[in-house]
Amino acid sequence: MARGLPTKRPIAGVKYVVAVASGKGGVGKSTTAVNLATTLSTHLNLRTGLLDADLFGPSIPLMLNLRGHEPELSEGNLLKPLVNYGVKTMSMGFLVPEGEAVVWRGLMVMKALEQLLRQVDWSDIDILVIDMPPGTGDTQLTITQQIPVDGAIIVSTPQDISLADAKKGAAMFGKVDVPILGMVQNMSYHICEKCNHVSHVFGHGGVDRTADEMRLDVLADVPLHSDVCETSDRGTPIVISRPQSVHAKVYREMGEKVWAKLQALKK
Q1: DSSP state for residue 114 in the 8-state scheme
Q2: What digits encode the pLDDT tens for the residues 52-63?
């Protein structure tokens, strides 16, 4: 152990931990995390948890239709995760009034994250998906220093400005010895509903090229479509509300790849 760093301790009851991250906000990271978690739960029948680690801008309560609910305490005085679509979920959005800003310095952030990791009843979880905030700050360092993270997923659009920050995110996980399972190319292209014309709104193939440079796999190539946004805003992830859609198929395939990679890493 390096001097001054805490000893990593697994979360009681959790077999695998996966971090979904991005260097920049607005690339669809939380949407990816939610659809991955619901896919693991409903398609692969895994006991799945989802931790919303974005303390300053929690969006998981909205995306899983859990706004307005408060967690109860277990007999062991642990917070009981709220559940929807079979996914056990915890978020700062359940613990502070909606619309109230969280204005904390680094030490407060670290303490809150430790509580979300250690003082929540995460028992009997096959895989815990952690929706990271954008960037490479206190949250990322705290989580990767507190618990063993089995793998990270980097989400980016094909746009160069997004990819520049995605590379920094990947480099950060390398420094803290977290394997990167692969990248997700989100908002990859748009297909016109009237003429089927394909438009590469944010550029073409940027994530593919970046993944090749870093010797990473591309786990999913997700098209841009208003359905993804609308279903997320309604709290009905597209893998649940429109399971026959192209997007749901992409997320299911991504879930299968992620689970296979995690099992391969443990061998």
Answers
A1: H
A2: 999 888 999 999
